[in-house]
Specification:
The chain is built from three helices and seven strands. By secondary structure, it is α+β, with helices and mostly antiparallel strands. The strands form two sheets. A five-stranded mixed beta sheet has the order 2-1-7-4-5. Strands 3-6 form a two-stranded antiparallel sheet. The protein starts with a strand and ends in a 9-residue tail after the last strand.
Length: 144
């Protein structure tokens, strides 16, 4: 089943990642939020583990394309496609982390402008609305 996902970070005018379509392994039209999160993590882990970890013999400069440069300056993070950690992601641990992060309020999930607040909420995927994931950032400081 194909779903549409947008990832945003509060305080940014533009999404960190634009809307993208993800293919998850699910056939029914209704799903619980916890299962949806696990399926999305499964898709992302499989995509990550499928990437090549070939070491390069020579070190050469990798320049970002023109349209990608604006995104780099907006986010303040530069990535050039190199993977330095050769370990494969652990699917079960990644799913547990995603569920725990949602319970701890590290990110919020919206489905067509409505916030999903409980892992046991049922979602009707046949409506084909866009899921929006917003990464929440906590402020640091003190009252003194």
């Amino acid at each position: 089943m194909e779903i549409k996902v947008t990832v945003k970070q509060l305080g940014r005018k533009h999404p960190v990642l634009s809307e993208q379509k993800l293919e998850i392994k699910y056939g029914a039209s209704r799903i619980v939020l916890e299962d949806l999160l696990k399926l999305i993590v499964q898709q992302q882990v499989e995509a990550f583990n499928a990437q090549s970890f070939e070491l390069e013999d020579t070190d050469y400069a990798k320049m970002p394309s023109e349209n990608y440069l604006n995104i780099l300056t907006d986010t303040g993070k530069a990535g050039f496609g190199s993977i330095y950690n050769e370990k494969k992601a652990n699917l079960q641990k990644a799913q547990e982390n995603a569920v725990q992060a949602f319970e701890d309020g590290m990110f919020a999930v919206f489905y067509n402008d409505g916030q999903l607040e409980n892992l046991s909420e049922t979602i009707d995927l046949s409506l084909e609305h866009t899921f929006t994931f917003i990464r929440l950032t906590f402020l640091a400081g003190s009252y003194w």
